[in-house]
Model the fold of this input.
Amino acid sequence: MLKFFRDQKNSWLMKGILILTALSFVSLFGSGRFLEKIPDEGKAIAKIHGEKITVAEFVNEVNHKVRSLSNITQKPFTIQDFVQSGMLISLFNQMISRSVMQAAVDDLNITVSDQAVRDEIKDMPVFTDYDGSFSMAAYKQYLSDMGISEKRFIDDAFLDMRAQQLTNAAKTVTIVPQKTAETLYSLQNEKRTADVFTITPADIRIKGNPNKEDQERLYKELSDDLIAPEYRTFTVMYLTLEDVAKKIKISEEELLEVYNENKDSYAIEEIRDVDQMLFTSKEEADEAYAALQKGQDFMEVAKKYANQTEDQTKLGDLTPSTATGDWADVVFSVKKGEIVPPVQTAFGWQILRVNKITPKVEKQFKDVRDEIEQKLIDSMAYDTLSETAVALDDRFGAGETIEEVAQSTGYPVKKYTLIDPAGSDESGKQIDISKTVLATAFLSEPGRETPMTEEGSDYFVLRIDDVKEPALKPIEKSQKEIKAAWIAEKQRKKAQEIVKTIENDLNKGVSPKSIAQKTGAKYKRISGITRRDTQLPASATYQLFNKPLKEAFFVPAESKFLVLKGIKTQKVDPKKDQIGVAELRRMMQEQTAAEKSDAILGDFADYLKLEINENIAQKAFSYITKSAQDSEEDY
Done:
């Protein structure tokens, strides 16, 4: 797939998307599912070359992606998950990018044959059997897992193959000289061997304590770091979804009514075990079907006429929701043991047989009562929570205190004493408190209750009871920091002395092992280092390939020091690895071609007058994020 389909941070497309990004974080209340009526569903989010992407198409594609992810992960995946993971913007980008590609290949009259598309799909590894042949069962299972129709999948494959021709066209005008590839190959694969010493200051033991003069000096130097932060004492009352849910009661009559209205959703689907054989022509299929009509064994006919093994013939268990294709309805209309006459599909002609039928099973009310109750409570809790938050806000606005409201409602209250902006108390212990509560506490005025504040699916209200202003800690209470700074200072000085000793000795020709024994530094001779190597920090690798051999040099690296000395160089002859050079040249050509393809598509977006209706797009995003904030089940 072209790089154009990836998220584009600086492309023409982002001009119409930047304003939408923030919408995926909007917190609204509404339905957990999409409403039956989609607002402005027929209006266009984007238009190009006479074609448009409507609000309804975008919303339906979101729904499709959510279902597909649930199938793939085998775990519940909701619209809310889709929005919170940032996939909304990515999908919007992909749909518009694909529309531009469609318009571009249409304008250029790029096409491929139906047979070429069929052959391409048949050769996809995901659809091949153990012997390398095409597996109809794997193909159908893939469509079911992805939740897409056969037509949609083939249309997408058709577009991808047409788009590939555009990429190939860019490749044909992209030239990477052989000499350029050989030079880069030589540079990338040149190897060096080096003696490497590692000195870690923190590992150096320092004895003693700072004297009075050092203490006073370091206290002044550390004064900015020794200012105690502002501390606040505050009281918080929490209103959680769990607390609200505990107070919701649902009668047996209501539960039974919900069960009766949704019986189908509590049923286990009918299961049918199916065999199939596939033919490229109707004549072949008719010949095999005639043999079956004469009483020949299904597996023998599949082997003889379709050249299929028993594993290829067994399609396995199907349900009405997992069966796809033109043959699905007829398979669920025949009796056990009955053979379905040849049916035409996108890949030829199929004959199917139903081996076994497991009837649909409906769960009784007693079996699903608790499940219904919990889902109803979860669904109602969001609305109840919002209503309760508004009611409590009114009480605080009327002058009631946190303590008074908590006493009458039973909602939990917690007092936090002298907490700093990082969430620690005066002793430095980290307190279990959310970032939202903490931030609100340090933005609020003392002495009054804040408005009810939303945090995820819950709410809280707080009051600042006391504020302790920032102040410089006295020297006697800063001894821990002063000594740590003194030790670190001594360790750095000692490490620098060791570095100097190692550099001097290496340049004098002293053996590395003797130097390591003398200084206590860690030593290792590393071979086969390349310019792209990760055995050393990037700065050290760069220096190694730019310093003369046999010259020792020093490199600071995070919390340690390195001293290196290049020992020898192993150059490579690109003429001896023509395959490697060819592969590198191919990669360079593909990268350049991809960049050209992106530029071509950007030009086509302008040439074909791509329009993005930001106002309609905002409404679509708001509708989806609104739906995402509600419960996932709506009874």
